[in-house]
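so my prof wants the structure for this chain in the tokens format not the other one, which i didnt know existed until like an hour ago. anyway here's the sequence
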Amino acid sequence: MNPQVQSFYDRATFTFTHVVYDRAGGRAAVVDPVLDFDPATARTSTTSADQVLAFVREKGLTVDWVLETHAHADHLTAAAHLKRETGAKVAIGQGITQVQERFRRLFGLESEFATDGRQFDRLFADGDTFEIGELMAHVIGTPGHTDDSLTYVIGNAAFVGDTVFAPETGTARADFPGGDARTLYRSIQRLFDLPGDTRLFLCHDYPPAEHEARAQSSLSEQRQHNVHLASSTDEDAFVKMRTERDRSLASPKLILPALQVNIRAGELPPPDANGIRYLRLPLNQIGGAA
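here's what i got, hopefully its the right format
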């Protein structure tokens, strides 16, 4: 059985959230939900996530899962909000434990912060399977962008996270802590081995002003036209291109707040004694020294 998919685009972070479901009145999963965040005021809101919830309620869907393709560096996740509203389980790749350990040290998080992934309800490994109502899903580990990156294949739909973007944009960067361009190349080859009718649902699109953002791509389009990795590109050439390109990229604007929230499955940090919650800013640690 192939799923129905409704996609929502957050223009502030260029992020797609997808609702994948078996039928109206059936069961669903939400992939990569966005928590709105204003960096100037450090205020959060659930406007984007509530639009997703409105669709879910309109269709009479029961949300079984909130599926994270990885711990994002460019937006905060609304997973915790959706879990509270729907009772869904929150899942991510088992590599999150490495991400948590790395960033616990960077941010100097509280001693009580656990790095065993317990903030999530399920840690998926490569090859795991699960159900969304009448839909069967399986997991492909696709690291390279991050340690915990994975792809959810649900029927003929694959939710690829940041592994690849629209063909004219290319592929994910591999210079974050835990990233590796050679590993990313091999992960993308696994995607290219999926059945030819697989629909690739993207986590981001960065279209020029004259184009609408695209939520999905096809395998044939990626194989033939991806500007970073057409089918003729070998591994060494990709690694050289990706490494050189990554050196020129600025850090994502929300990387510091996003990671502190996303490694907690969308929960905000615990409040201090004064009742206020704080995000930490490690100086001169991200993107090189000033």
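also thought this was worth mentioning. The first helix runs from residue 47 to 58.
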